[in-house]
Structures are given as C-alpha cells and as structure tokens.
Amino acid sequence: MAQAEAICAAGAQRLTPIRRRVLEALLASHAPLGAYELIEKLGKRGARPAPITIYRALDFLRDNGLVHRIESRNAFIACGHNHNSTDPVVFLICERCGSVGEAAGSPVADTIRSAARAAGFTPKTPVIEITGVCSHCRAA
Amino acid sequence: MAQAEAICAAGAQRLTPIRRRVLEALLASHAPLGAYELIEKLGKRGARPAPITIYRALDFLRDNGLVHRIESRNAFIACGHNHNSTDPVVFLICERCGSVGEAAGSPVADTIRSAARAAGFTPKTPVIEITGVCSHCRAA
DNA sequence: CTCATTCTTGTTGCAGCGCAACATTTATTT
DNA sequence: AAATAAATGTTGCGCTGCAACAAGAATGAG
C-alpha cells in the first residue's frame, strides 16, 4: 500500500479515494475479484459505484502496475511485487480454491522469448497464466 | 478436417453438421473468432443459430482438442496440431492484426513445470498466451 | 486570485459474452 | 418397437466492458 503511494507519487499520479479503495479490496483478497464483486464490496461502505467507475479505477491501477487482470477469470488481482514493466509475471491459478500465486518468471520468460523469436514474433507482455491445483488444495 | 473425423471416430464422438460447420469456420479463419462472429458466419447459409448452440458446439470441439479458447480475446481458434492433452500450447497473438500462431511448447513447458513445482503447484493445462507483434506486422 | 486547462467522477445506455432451465427432436441400445 | 441417451431448439437472463456526454475537482498560468 505504501508502495502504491510511492509509485503514484513518483509518476505524479493521483491515488484518489476510489482508486485506493479498489486497491485495498484487492489487497485484502487472496483470490482475484471481478468488477461486480468490487462494486459490492465498495457498496457496503457508501454508495454503490457504477461499473464504469470500477473499470476506470482498475485501468489506472493496471497502468501503474499495481493490479493485473486474470484473463481466464475476467477478474483482477493486486500485484505484490513491483515488476519492471518488461519483467514477466507467471500466475499460478488454483482451479479449486481460486487463489492466485505468483512464480518467479525469469527463467520461464527466457524460454518463451526464445520460442517466440524463433517464430519471428516479438513478445510484448509476458503475462502467463497457469491453471492447476495449489499445494493447499492438493493436500486436502 | 480429416483429422477431426478421425479423432471423433476414435472416441465414438459424433461430428454433427453444426459442430462440423463451426470447425470449418474456425479452420477457414486465420484469426480467432468470437461466438457471435460464428453465429453470423453460420447464419449466412441457413438459419441463425442461437448463441447456446454455438457454445455447445465449441464445448464439444474443445473437449476433443480440436479448438482452443483464447482467453485474452474471448474468442476461439481451430487447433492444427494434434496435441497430447498434456502437451502445452503456446499461442502467439498479434495485437495488430489479431492473427494467432503456435510455437513449439516443449522447452517452455519444462521451465514452467519446474517453476510451478517450486511453488508447490501442480500445473494442469499449460495453455500460454503471449501477445506481441507478428513478423508480418513488424515488417509493415 | 482568477481563469483556463486538465484530470477525475457521475449518469445513461448499450452491445457482446456465456450459460441455465426446460422442451423437443434425433440417434442409439436392448 | 420401446427405452435410453444424446443433441438441438427456445426462452431468458446475469455478467462483462465500455462509449458518450455531463459535471465536479484539482492543477497551472497569468
């Protein structure tokens, strides 16, 4: 959270109350949240924000690398590390409990980059989503 | 297409006219198609199928490994190779022209598997989507 | 300090996505 | 030929995501 403030300050970006509350809700959740789940969470303390309000806050947070979108779930998650924009992110999505972890992505990124370049492809955003079963659910 | 028939025959699965036409439409397209694009394409020759009809056909084709869903686009694409269900698939999605290519995934899969296991995670469906710029668009 | 500019938020509305639930038809089995 | 299973049709609806415009709040220039 303090990191979020630092990032925004560094870029002269404004972490407004709405944006802050969206980020707080995502930080408080171990699983990714959909836009309408965020509406409900924020709506419990005050007026229900319109969908577009949430999407705009999410756009802002994503532009600043504080939030990632989980494509396979149409949901969003706060990003703990402060990634370089060029660094890859590997998400490990548990298909049972829905929790999302992050794996160190450097070695994975290298092989992906080489595979992509072998096909004449210039990769841009190495955001990799791997579904499976997390250690906790596997034990159960 | 012949391969599709072979796969269905092997599993005692029925490649009905609707399923066949959906697959043909996807095979004829170099870019992934959304469900509603498929409706329009099939609607030009006969009655417009309902959305659910398309989704059911797509479910069938996906279950049989003939079609993949591109999560980041909410669209579907025919799968050329006959993957093992355990083999990974790496899609190279051009953000300019929308075309989708496949990269050889074996080396990528190994690094992903090891990275995932290091986190105590059991990966299941290594379907990896990489966005970027394809060689054709890069030249232009 | 005031005005213009920019950024942010509110309001309204809509199109695409995806499927649930049930009814009907078609194919397969006994 | 009847029972069972599979596929398709029909209706309907909730979620996703954003466009377009209006209004309010913050910043910078003069």
Features of the shown structure:
homodimer, 140 residues, alpha+beta, 3-stranded mixed beta sheet, two-stranded antiparallel sheet, 6 helices, 6 strands, DNA-binding
Structure description:
- 2 copies of one chain form a homodimer.
- With 140 residues, chain A is of the alpha+beta class.
- The first copy, chain A, is built from 6 helices and 6 strands, in the order ααααββββαββα.
- A 3-stranded mixed β-sheet of chain A has the order 4-3-6. The first copy, chain A, has a two-stranded antiparallel ribbon with strand order 1-2.
- In chain A, helix 2 packs across helix 4.
- The model of chain A has no long low-confidence stretch (mean pLDDT 84).
- The interface between A and B is large, with 36 and 36 residues.
- Strand 5 of chain A pairs antiparallel with strand 6 of chain B, so a sheet runs across the interface.
